Amino acid sequence: MSEAQEKTTGNLFVPKARSQKVTAEPREHVSNVIEIVHTLVLNVRMKHSYCELDKFVDEMMAPNEHLPKKSSGSHLSVLEQYAIESTHKAIDMSNQEERLVYRPNLCVQKTDAFGVWTFNYLIDLLELDYQCADEDKNKNFPKIWKTTSGATVQVVKDRNPTSQRTSLTTATTTTETAESVSQSDDDVTILCLLKRISLQNKCNENDAITWKDALEVENITTVQHLRTVAGDKDCWDKLSSVKYFVKQMIRDYIQLHTPSVASNRVKDPYKDSAATLYGDIHRVRRYFHDVTKTLEYIPYLDLEAVDLSIKEMRRTYEDDGKVLNTIHAYMRTFCLKPVVITSVEHDEKRKKWMNERARLLEDIKPMHEEHAKQHCARLIQQQEVELAELGYNNKDAEIANIRREQDEIRRRVDEMSNFSRDHAIQKLQSDYDRGITLAKKELDKKREILAKEDRVYAEISSNLTDLDMQIRDLDAFLKLNLVDEHQKLKVKYGRGLLLYGPPGTGKYFILLTVHL
Region Disordered: what ranges (predicted)? Predict the structure, then answer.
C-alpha cells in the first residue's frame, strides 16, 4: 500500500500499517507511607434546583440517632459518617500533581454487546468531592491518605445563590444544552481530554502524555478527529500504536460523552413526573444508609413516591377492576419503617410488662369487690322499682271499685240529700287522685335511683373490662418469641418478579436459566 493510500479518506481515518513504539518517561518513585487526614470538607452539589432535593440533603446533614456521637455530644449525620466510611481505606492520589480536591468515582461502567453503559450511585442528582482541611498539609491531600473513625467532617451544601429552588408542583428547572454537557472546558484539547480519562480510571496523570504521543503517531491530533475515529469500530480496532486497554478506556469515555448521548441525558427526567424524583431520591438515600450501615432503619420504598406513581398511572390507565388499588395497597406495605428490637431491649420491655401486669392485678382486686357490691345494690333497687310499679298499677285496679261505690250512692239518691251525695262522690275521687299521685312520685323516685345505680355499675364494668383486656394483652406479649415473631412480621414478597437494570446486566439470562 502506498503512503498516499495510508492517509485519511473522507471523515474516517485509515491507520498506517507501521507502528511506532512510544516510550514513557520514567515515573518518580512513590512512597508507600499512608498519611492520616484528620479534617475533611465534604462538598455536596445539587444538580437540580428542586425543593425536594434540597430537603433531602438537609435530612442527610441532620444528626442521626443511630450513628455514633461526636466529641461535642451530638450524633453524626449520615453524610459525615458516609465521608468517614468511604475514605477509611487508603486512597492513592500519587498520580496527580495537584491534590487540592478528591472526587470519588461513583459510577459503574460496563461494556457489552450493545455498547457501553454506566450507572451512577447518585443518579445524577448530586456531586460529591472532598477537600483536605488539615492546617499542616496546606489544604493539599497527601499522595496516599486515609481517614480514621475519629476524623472531623464538615459538610458544605452548594446552595447556588444565582438559581432559585423550585418545587415540582409549581415550576420546572432549566436544562443545559447538549453541547455544554458533551464538551466541557477540560475537553477542548486532546491532552486535557486524555488527562480527564486517566484520572477517571485512576491512572497516572502523566500517562495522558504517552497516550497523546501514541495518537499523534496515528495522525490523530484533535478531539474532533478522535471522536470521528472512535465512532467507527473498524478504524478504531486497526489503531496499533495505542494499547488495547487504553483504547477501550478512551472509546468508552467518548461514547458516553457524545452529543447524541448527552442530549438524551440532559433532558430533565423529573419535569413531568414527581414520582420519579421522589423514587430516585430514595434510591440515593438507601445508598448512603447502606454505606453507613443504617439501612435497616429506613423503609424499602418511599411512601410519597408510591402514592404519586399510582396517581400518575391513573391518568393513562383505566382501572375498572380496582387493579391499581390492589397494587397500591401492596406497595404501601414496603413503605413501613422497619422496627428492629435487640434482645436486651426485649428483656427490658418484658420487665416493664411484668411490672405493669403486677400493678394491674393489684388495682383490679378492689374493683372486683366494688363491682360485686354494686351489682347487689342494683338488684335491690330493681326490686324496689318493681314494687313501686305494682303499687302504681294497683291504683288503676281500684277504679272499678270506686265506680261501683258511685253507682251505689246514686241508687240511694232518694234517701240522701244532694249535698251529701256530691260530697261523698268528690271525697272518693280526691282520695283516688291523691293515692295515684303519691304512687307516681314514688315510682319516679325509685326509677331515678335505679338509673343512677345502672350508670355506676356500667362505669365499673367498663373499667373492669379494660383492665382485663390489658392483662390479657400483657400475658400475650410475655409469651412472644422475639426471633419467631420478627420472621412472621417481615413483609413477604409476591410471586411476581421485576428485574430492573441497564442493558447487558443479565436479566434475560437469569430468567432463561431459571426457566431451564
Answer: 158-180
Confidence (pLDDT) at 197: 82
Cα 6 to Cα 8: distance, rounded to the nearest angstrom = 7
For residue range 330-377, what is the model confidence (pLDDT) as tens digits?
A: 888 888 877 666 677 778 888 888 899 899 888 888 888 888 888 888
Residue 483's pLDDT is 61
CA distance 23 to 482: 67
Closest to 137 measured CA to CA, from 27, 40, 28: 40
Domain boundary pick from 137, 170, 203 = 170
In a domain, residue 350? The reply is: no
Please report how many Cα atoms fall inside a 13 Å half-sphere around the Cα of residue 368, on the Cβ side: 8
The number of beta carbons lying within 10 Å of the beta carbon of residue 7 is: 11
**Counted domains in the chain:** 2
CA distance linking residue 254 with residue 227, whole number of Å = 7
For residue 284, what pLDDT is reported? 94
Whole-prediction pTM:
0.56
- 391 lies in a domain? yes
User: Is 231 inside any structural domain?
Assistant: no
Please report whether residue 281 resides in a domain: no
By CB atoms closer than 10 A (0-12, 13-18, 19+), residue 95 is middle
Last residue of a domain, one of 124, 145, 170: 170
Q: Which residues of the chain have pLDDT under 70?
A: 1-32, 109-116, 159-187, 256-267, 319-321, 339-342, 391-392, 394-429, 432, 482-498, 500, 512-516
Cα gap 235→136, rounded to integer Å: 51
Angle between helices 78-86 and 274-291 (to 10 degrees): 60
pLDDT digits (tens, 9 = 90+) for 234-246: 888 888 888 888 8
Give the helix, strand, coil percentages of the chain, each rounded to 5.
55, 10, 35
Domain of residue 98, residue span: 34-170
pLDDT for position 345: 75
Grid coordinates given for 218? 496515528
Task: Please give the grid coordinates belonging to residue 147.
Answer: 481517614
pLDDT score at 30: 47
DSSP H or E segment with residue 46? strand 39-46
Cβ contacts of 238-244, under 8 Å, gap ≥ 24? 238/14, 238/15, 239/15, 240/15, 240/19, 241/19, 241/20, 241/22, 241/214, 241/215, 241/217, 242/211, 242/214, 242/215, 242/218
